[in-house]
Amino acid sequence: MAYIYYLTHIHLGYDALAQVPAECTRAGITRPLIVTDKGVVAAGLVERVLEAAQRPGAAALPDPATLRGAPMFDDTPSNPTEAMVLAAAARYRDAGCDGLIAVGGGSSIDLAKGVAIAVAHPGPLTQYATIEGGSDKITAACAPLIAIPTTAGTGSEVARGAIVILADGRKLGFHSWHLLPKAALCDPSLTLGLPPTLTAATGMDAIAHCIETFLSPAFNPPADGIALDGLERAWAHIERASADGNDRDARLQMMSASMQGALAFQKGLGCVHSLSHPLGGVPVGGRTSLHHGTLNAVVLPAVLRFNESAASVVANHRFARMRRAMHLPDDADLAQAVYDMTARLRLPTGLAQMGVDASVFDKVIAGALADHCHKTNPREACADDYRRMLAESL
User: Fold this and answer.
1) Residue ranges of the Alcohol dehydrogenase iron-type/glycerol dehydrogenase GldA domain (predicted)?
2) In the sheet where 32-35 sits, what is the strand order?
3) Residue 2: predicted pLDDT
4) Which domains does the chain carry?
């Protein structure tokens, strides 16, 4: 049976920020904690959100000064960690907050989702991870969240999941419909001027999402249509958006594609994410912050070859539909097309370029087999399959 669930209020367009006060009122938020990172603050994006919410015509909060004086947590790392979730949760409690506004990329939004759990549920956080059987333990008591993305890639603003690196080093997913943001304010003006490399990396993240959700075998025709349309938009506009940071139409199309890829998440993802999740948590050069979207771009060709080699009627049909959406020839090598796009965008095309070597393969494979995305790939992968995909991606 298909379960189709779309409830987030989504505002998409260059005037979306004006809806912050009205959405706070609708969600019952009178004292929000703003969750962001220092780069977003330095770029002036939080200030722009605050200014937009105070303009004439924006529906006022019960106290018009609520947003301007809202407490802030701006220590979100490039990959959310349990330590930072707990630090933000402490800030939330100390400031007497009753809701969250996440302003940033997927890391800030995911960290805010972690806070939404932590402030309303007893610890430890690990018990709420999906692979620990924790989804049913996450209740409606979660703090309400409004998400404002500043990149076009993760789609976390409309997704029910969050990825967090736990204290034990595992990079795990947390999934519950109670984590869905109450509202997503997708204003592409916040992505204008984003550097080319970050635009490309987040854009390839959106493309990976659209492809993996479309290939997932779950029966969900609306999600299929949303994912396929998102793929067409992203593939057609990612190079324009990356080349010109002020191309307003390209930025709007990429913001939409990012949101669409995540709307289709409820079908499930696949081996790309089974691999990129643990890869993002392994120490490389003394750090565990490899960019998720870049990892997805690098491993996507190998996963596409693995899935297409299943040679089923369904797989052939879906690959044919993706080629049409991407305006590729009927006989195009889809994996090669993705590799070539990644190269044109000047992103790494191999894991070795990111500092990954074969010494981490065993740990990554163990993580991939346990990952929540593993079982929704259209073709089940075993340890040897994952090893071949990693070797091909090196």
Assistant:
1) 8-188
2) 9-12, 183-186, 145-149, 99-104, 32-35, 72-73
3) 74
4) 9-190 (3.40.50.1970), 195-393 (1.20.1090.10)
